[in-house]
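Quick log. Single chain, no ligands specified.
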Amino acid sequence: MNTITTVATTRPRLDTLEGPVLLVAPTAREASAVAATIEVLTRAGRAPSVLVAVGETSEACLGATEGEVGRAHRLAERIAAHIAAVGARTVLLPPPADIDPDHRSTCVAGAAAAPFGGARWVGFLGAGLELVVPAGEAHVHARGLPRPVGEPTVSAVVSAWNKLKDVRANLIALRAQTRPFDELVVVDNSSTDGTVEMIRRDFPEVRLVIMPNSAYGACETFNVGFATARGERIAILDDDVVLTPEWLEATLARMQKEPETTAIVSTSVIEPGMPDSYKNAPAVNTERFMSTFRGCASLARAKALKEAGGYDERLFLYGNERDLTCRLLNLGYRVLQFPGAETFHMTPFGVKMGKRSLYFHARNAWLSMLKYAPLGDLVRMPWLVVSKVLLRGKETEAAGTVTDAVGTIGIGRAVRETKGAWWVLVKASASILWNVPYCLKHRAPVRHQDFELPLR
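-> predicted structure:
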């Protein structure tokens, strides 16, 4: 793993800090606990503004719930926005080694946010001002407690293409983890919007792989990332997700409790336009074994990914998670849904509208099932797709009855509203027929109890 050498600590006087100063604390109670610090700064003409994480949302409060700051969405982004709004040059944070979860989440999020909000310095408070470092190095010092002996190493693998702002937000959140990643890998699909230059400038710790052109599908770019990563666990992440501060700590701890046969832990995902009825549905919020996983934010055993061969690159994109799960099930592995960790996915809820999305969703569902569905299920599938997917109502989907096959949510609307949809389906059908020999060559019907058709 790459190691980052920390700089020597410094202990400047409070009254010499560069202003304006922003104090970021978990709660107003913690902010009051450093009243002596505030008094010294005030006497020096640098009275700090205060931002707290917990409480009702306001200009000086981020609206998090006490005890759950680590589950707050886009925490680092919002702290960065506040730093910029008040023009803070120095940001004061809780001490890195604090065992309180809210303190640690506030610390790592503030440290990751500081340089992107325009701050020059970050100070960590303990018994006085214990450490001041340049803002660009603060995320290294915020790592806090060392990784427990024997805990597996973890690599984050991100596949990126022309989403500069989203990738920046993603990487800030990856820095803002209470359990730091041991390695960050980004596979860029030859972006032309400055993503590569931004990563090289702002995130030098990232292992950046640049594809020779943009003709590669997400299946192949992720496979390149899996092969590049050196961690024993791999976080599979889309370029437009923002992890909550405790995402890795919680997900890894859950996986550690599972036997080696649990290959993937699939976490909870929140998306724009997701109905409350879906968010609160029992099936979405219950731990259970699944026939697929959320490919935008899941944690996998590197050994299992390698054994299963990664994603099938013939699929290009969409439906690759269920296809991979089928091979994992055939190898005796399982996939666990874990609602105890959340991430924010910037892609709106349901299937993406458009011809490209419709083509690959329709084609790939059949390619996967031709390879892996038992014959009886395969015979019933045409009728089931029409009756349970294409004719499924919006209210049924919003109620959370479709919990695993999230790529089919809204597929009926896509068929009705996409111009030329039936021609798209004809081309998808032709591709399916062309790929029948390939599917038969790789056919291995899944008999595992967790297997399901992509219907719900």
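The radius of gyration is 24 Å.
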